[in-house]
Specification:
4-stranded antiparallel sheet; 339 residues; globular; mainly beta
Length: 339
């Protein structure tokens, strides 16, 4: 574990938080963009490559007892209409630590707000981080964090998985609250280097209490990772009875402010997407106003959560996972301008 490398920075003010909310809000919901009849679709990550936009997303059979996460690829010309390309990671019978669960997420995107939305090449390769396990079911414990690389991020057959996890819940430097399972990871290059390291990994994890918080790890080569700090950086769980999950972080930067989108689940309420802001990736100011995304319609009446946000041509696109009481879970989209 590496200790927090903090510099004294001014806090993000309420006025700045409100300005950022107004900048990133997406009040117009367009509904489903990736929805399958026999599978749940989930956790989109979207980027630009060449003349198209591409989406990695995960799917699991609705009969989760005999299934597990797999990773898929789709492409689009307008960020609204998506064409399926094919599977990236399929479950297998090799009895590896990642044979039965392989949920992938785009790594090292341009985190500049309104930037290129392309994935950055690192070590002459493109990367996917992925949630991994070797048991059937819906997110069965334990889950590990894997990494794979490719020379072409849009080739569904081009990714080679690393032989071992990059982080595990039983690592020697594991911290309190992350000793059971590691969930979604967001890997990015931090040009400012505020942690003292160029590469940062934000992820949610849980311990035996089954409540999830958001942690950081850092790397100097993007392949070997060490935990950063002795505690979670987003913890809306400790000291509360209602807090259940703070999860699925995505980070981008507006001027000198890091903006983290994540979802919250509180007892008795649908999960929703919100955000926090920081100038050093350690000290975060939590938005306390209206959620960025929340359940509003019958087709998302159970949860509206799990963000992926991009800005393109002065329009915000906020992809999320909608869950309803009709046993449907699918990828939906909200935008900042009424199309």
């Amino acid at each position: 574990m590496i200790h927090f490398h903090t510099t004294k920075v001014p806090p993000v003010t309420k006025e700045e938080m409100l300005k950022i909310y107004e900048t990133i809000k997406t009040p117009y919901k367009l509904g489903a963009v990736i929805k399958w009849e026999n599978d749940f679709t989930d956790s989109p990550t979207v980027f630009r490559q060449g003349d198209h936009f591409w989406m990695y997303f995960i799917a699991v059979s609705k009969d989760c007892s005999i299934s597990g996460y797999e990773t898929h690829l789709a492409k689009s010309d307008d960020l609204i209409h998506w064409e399926y390309v094919g599977p990236i990671f399929k479950r297998n019978d090799l009895n590896r630590w990642d044979s039965k669960q392989c949920a992938g997420y785009a790594a090292f995107p341009d985190i500049t707000f309104g930037g290129t939305n392309i994935l950055q090449k690192v070590n002459d390769s493109y990367y996917i981080s992925y949630l991994a396990g070797n048991s059937d079911g819906y997110e069965p414990d334990p889950l590990y964090m894997g990494l794979a690389k490719s020379s072409d991020p849009t080739d569904p057959n081009g990714f080679q998985r690393f032989p071992e996890p990059i982080l595990r819940p039983d690592d020697p430097d594991v911290r309190c609250y992350e000793t059971k399972t590691l969930y979604k990871s967001f890997l990015f290059y931090d040009e400012a280097g505020v942690t003292g390291h160029p590469y940062v990994n934000a992820y949610n994890a849980k311990d035996e209490s089954a409540r999830e918080r958001i942690f950081l790890a850092v790397s100097d080569d993007a392949q070997h990772w060490q935990r950063y700090g002795d505690r979670p950086v987003i913890d809306l769980i400790t000291g509360t009875e209602d807090g259940i999950i703070c999860g699925d972080p995505q980070i981008f930067k507006i001027d000198d402010i890091y903006v983290m989108l994540f979802f919250r689940l509180e007892a008795g309420k649908p999960a929703y997407n919100t955000f926090a802001c920081s100038r050093n990736l350690v000290d975060w100011t939590i938005w306390d106003g209206e959620p960025l995304i929340q359940s509003e319609y019958p087709w998302e009446n159970v949860h509206a959560h799990k963000s992926w946000f991009i800005r393109h041509n002065d329009c915000n696109y906020h992809y999320y996972c909608a869950v309803n009481s009709q046993n449907e879970r699918f990828i939906a989209l909200a935008v900042s301008e009424n199309p």
